[in-house]
Design a protein that fits this description.
4-stranded antiparallel sheet; 187 residues; globular; mainly beta; single chain
Length: 187
């Protein structure tokens, strides 16, 4: 199944044919994020007209298994080992139990987030709009920030990972002149 959320609906499509498997009410009007799933639930989030994260049964029943009022509007969420991780637009990292929605922890990162976090092993890489790059543990026991570094003046794009290298589109300012560069760091 291929899942899409938005305009107040959750849709399941056959990825080979494009045919609709099922469609239900259950999302907010505007959803920017990609739609993660663990095979049992589809995780929807949005910020307009209401802020929410929801787990919807992936079987077409329309059952909303749980819902919170947390605002994860632009960055996409991650699922790992039964837990849902996200960077909220407001600069807060969050971990929820993927089956129940129970909050495991929240941790303050800072700044505003547009780019999505990236999971590499048991570490989550996230960069805010001001170019602050964070790495924290994907661990439900508690928030553990491993490092914070400055990579540029503005970042809106999600990091890409390939062959042990991280690629990131970053903006730099010299006075009022803005330039973008693709930077690579890694092995």
């Amino acid at each position: 199944q291929l899942f899409l959320t938005g305009t107040d609906k959750v849709t399941s499509l056959n990825p080979l044919t494009g045919e609709v498997n099922w469609e239900i009410e259950g999302s907010t009007t505007e959803c920017v994020t990609s739609t993660p799933t663990d095979g049992t639930h589809i995780y929807s989030s949005g910020g307009y007209p209401k802020s929410h994260i929801a787990a919807i049964a992936a079987d077409g029943s329309g059952e909303i298994v749980w819902e919170t009022n947390d605002r994860v509007y632009v960055p996409s969420m991650l699922v790992k080992d039964g837990h849902l991780y996200a960077t909220m637009d407001s600069g807060v990292a969050i971990c929820l139990d993927a089956a129940t929605g129970e909050e495991k922890w929240k941790g303050r990162l800072g700044g505003n987030f547009t780019s999505s976090p990236v999971l590499v092993g048991d570490r989550i890489h996230a960069v805010n709009e001001s170019g602050d790059y964070y790495i924290f543990q994907a661990n439900p026991v508690g928030f553990q920030l491993l490092t914070k570094n400055k990579v540029g003046d503005e970042v809106y794009a999600t990091p890409s990972v390939s062959g042990g290298n991280f690629f990131l589109r970053v903006a730099f300012y010299e006075g009022e002149t803005r330039s973008e560069k693709l930077i690579c760091f890694g092995e």
